[in-house]
Amino acid sequence: MKRVTKLLSALLTIALGVLFIIYKTEVLSxxxxxxxxxxxVLAVLDLIRFKVITAVIEGIIGVAVLVIGWTLVDIALFVLxxxxxxxxxxxxxxxxxxxxxxKNGFVVxxxxxxxxxxxxxxxxxxxxxxxxxxxxxxxxxxxxxIDGLLSLIVALGGKKKKKKRAR
Length: 167
Fold this sequence. Notes:
The chain is mainly alpha-helical.
């Protein structure tokens, strides 16, 4: 990849991360709108190419994303909360009843943290999914900014030429 392309990609990644951090759920709304419109455009293009079945499927999904996009997000968050909750409860029960091998107290306490975090996350998703979604968007933004900064460092670093050693 050319250096200019790497720089541009890194800067756009950083900008996208900042947008995720600042606008949180609004970015998700924009993404759903772009996805819905993109699927409808693909449906029209497939219809022109006489791919009727593919066009109908893309068109239906595109309209569904535009019309009931947030409902789909709510359903996905609800399913995620249920799965996280079940996993957390099963793991908590398993760790309570597992045979105690010679473990120190610190290891046992650390073993209970994961299921408790899963149960807490499930409860937050069930009862306050908007705040949970906002935090997920902030985390995605932070990770995008970090990725963009690392890519920027790599792009600015360039290639170093190996020096020939004199004999």
